[in-house]
Amino acid sequence: LRSEVLLKQAHKDLAVWKNRFFVLFPDGLVYFDDEDAFKQGKPPRGKVMFADLQCISGQAADVAPRFMFMLLGKNHVF
Question: Are 50 and 28 contacting, i.e. CB atoms less than 8 angstroms apart?
């Protein structure tokens, strides 16, 4: 549906943010080191499948994003 370079927080070092190439599909997001890796057919570095997501805030879905932004202190975080 769409592809774009986004910042992704490094798993082990919460202070490090890296550019990753994300591709949005109807059932989730997959991400690669860069666009070339995607075009070369390399396997993705990771994925976020929508069916696996749960709201951990206990708030309604239309309120949860604002809560998460405040919690993490960064914009465009999910």
Answer: yes
